[in-house]
Design brief:
- The protein is α+β, with helices and mostly antiparallel strands.
- It has seven helices and 24 strands.
- It has an 18-stranded antiparallel barrel.
- β15 and β16 form a beta hairpin.
- The radius of gyration is 32 Å and the shape is globular.
Length: about 550
């Protein structure tokens, strides 16, 4: 036992020596030497450390052999009588035994190991992260079909797989200044066939793209040393309504320039200017037609500003934001639009206010948005209600200056120690907007509600029930179109923490009943012409 403790003690000394050697080399040469030179220095210092440790072990072994050869035979320990007459080891023997006990081995605490790991990662200047969602699902009759995910909720109602992989490498550092190269690859898989290659595209179940490619500089702006400056294909952060699988605010990643987290006396400022060109369709093409190739590419730029972390109370903050998308067209494009050969590309703006506050050991986010033209038209989309200027880089339809607005509440809170509730509530209205289903000059009103109460069995296990309902009415050309439905999903969920919105990885075993009450807008039906679907499956979601 003593020998094992002693060996552990030596190993701890060796580990500490190596770590101090590594840290010293990094501090001495981080700003003057290349990574290869620093690795050579580290190897040289490691060899020197090993030689010193070997010399120490040889010396210690020689001393032990000398002591063993010269030490006299130890007499039996003397006994003394206690008051009760029982024999007892002498005090000198007890002292010798205590002094012979080796010290406890040096152990590095989890906090120290975490700091060392962070130091090594920062020193090498490389970071890797990602996300993906995958799983299997079926129904009582045929393959499953998603419907109204952006209105009824995604839980048990999405059957594809999404992923993104991000790489970040520091290219330069000097003091508090640094420059990083960033790359992100993302895509979608249908999860229906084994051969879902990128060559097939989204129609074949495989989609992949390089969504981000930009340089990020920290500490480069003398007037805002705490801010980050980026140049390249990127965007300001997107705000997701997680239960509905769309963003309350986003600008698609585009080539541009941005400043993030410029600290002001109150709050922080972020700004960006990105290029988001669109394919403007000929007016003879059906809206969104995949067979019509008569398009012209129009240069579009989007300017955006966000002013966040404005304190309202000690725990409540406000964020204000504005976005403006404008076209930079050639004279030929303007003339073709004036002749009604192509759709007129109209500028569009969006304004928003976001109130964030804690509630019942959780959080809530209340968002109010107002927009016009194409940005507002997206508010009435039954599924992907992202406030985009275009439709997957395509632009079509008659936009006539109409206005739309919506109020969105999302968050989670604990009703008790055993019950957590997540929610997403939306109310929106619009006037004189373009709909891909009901055409130009459409008025709409929409109500969407999704709640997910979950029973907490333990930190790693929950039983979840997600309930969704929506009702939307579009009015165009003196006609009214109604669409509504509901969803019930029951799931057993393995988790890594109790939070519904903020803890991943997560594994779900679920069953869903999906019912269309009215479908006059998108005319959706399920397999065999049914107006309902019963599905079941398993899904995994992970952030790493």
């Amino acid at each position: 036992m003593m020998k094992a403790n002693k060996q552990n003690y030596k190993k701890s000394i060796i580990a500490a020596a190596l770590l101090s050697c590594y840290a010293a080399s990094g501090e001495a040469a981080a700003q003057k030497l290349t990574l290869e030179q620093r690795m050579e220095m580290l190897e040289a210092q490691l060899r020197a450390t090993q030689q010193k440790l070997q010399a120490y072990e040889d010396k210690e072994q020689a001393q032990q052999q000398t002591l063993a050869a010269t030490a006299p035979t130890a007499p039996a320990p003397s006994k003394v009588q206690t008051a009760s007459g029982a024999p007892s080891a002498s005090a000198s023997t007890a002292v010798m035994t205590a002094s012979a006990t080796p010290a406890e081995p040096l152990e590095l605490s989890p906090d120290t190991l975490k700091k060392i790991s962070k130091y090594v990662q920062d020193d090498t200047g490389f970071k890797y992260s990602g996300y993906f969602r995958s799983g299997w699902a079926s129904t009582t009759n045929g393959g499953p079909k998603s419907w109204a995910v952006g209105s009824l909720g995604r839980f048990g109602n999405e059957y594809d797989g999404w992923y993104n992989l991000s790489l970040k490498k520091r290219a330069w550092r000097e003091g508090d200044k640094s420059i990083w190269a960033n790359v992100q690859f993302e895509g979608d898989l249908g999860l229906t066939q084994s051969n879902e290659s990128f060559e097939k595209g989204i129609s074949g179940g495989g989609l992949g793209k390089l969504s981000k490619l930009y340089v990020e500089g920290n500490g480069l702006l003398p007037f805002a040393p705490e801010a980050s400056l980026w140049i390249g294909k990127h965007t300001l952060p997107q705000y997701e309504i997680q239960l509905l699988d769309w963003k309350s605010n986003r600008t698609l990643s585009g080539a541009g320039i941005g400043i993030e987290n410029w600290t002001l006396p109150l709050g922080a400022l972020s700004m960006a200017l990105t290029r988001n060109d669109i394919d403007n369709y000929s007016t003879v093409c059906a809206a969104g037609s995949s067979t019509c190739s008569d398009t012209t590419q129009v240069n579009v730029n989007i300017a955006e500003v966000r002013y966040k972390n404005l304190p309202i109370t000690d725990n409540v903050t406000l964020e204000l934001g504005a976005k403006y998308a404008f076209a930079n067209q050639t004279d030929e494009q303007k003339e073709a639009q004036a002749n009604n050969d192509y759709y007129q590309v109209k500028s569009s703006w969006l304004g928003q206010a976001i109130l964030r506050n804690p509630i019942l050991n959780g959080t809530n986010e209340l968002t109010l948005q107002v927009a016009d033209n194409s940005l507002a038209s997206q508010f009435m989309n039954i599924s992907s209600a992202n406030p985009d200027f275009d439709y997957n880089s395509s632009y079509y339809g008659i936009h006539s200056g109409g206005i739309g607005w919506r109020l969105v509440s999302q968050g989670e809170f604990y009703l008790s120690d055993k019950i957590i509730m997540a929610h997403a509530l939306v109310y929106g209205r619009g006037h004189d907007l373009y709909s891909t289903y009901t055409g130009a000059h459409t008025d709409f009103e929409t109500v969407r509600a999704v709640i997910r109460p979950s029973w907490i069995w333990s930190r790693n296990m929950q039983t979840a029930l997600e309930l969704g309902y929506f009702n939307q009415q579009n009015r165009a050309n003196n006609l009214t179109f109604d669409e509504s439905g509901y969803k019930v999903t029951l799931a057993q969920v393995f988790k890594v923490d109790t939070s519904i919105l903020n803890s991943r990885p997560e594994i779900r075993l679920y069953s869903t009943y999906l019912k269309a009450l009215e479908n006059e807008i998108d005319s959706t039906t399920f397999n065999d012409g049914k107006d309902y679907q019963i599905s079941f499956g398993v899904q995994a979601e992970v952030v790493f």
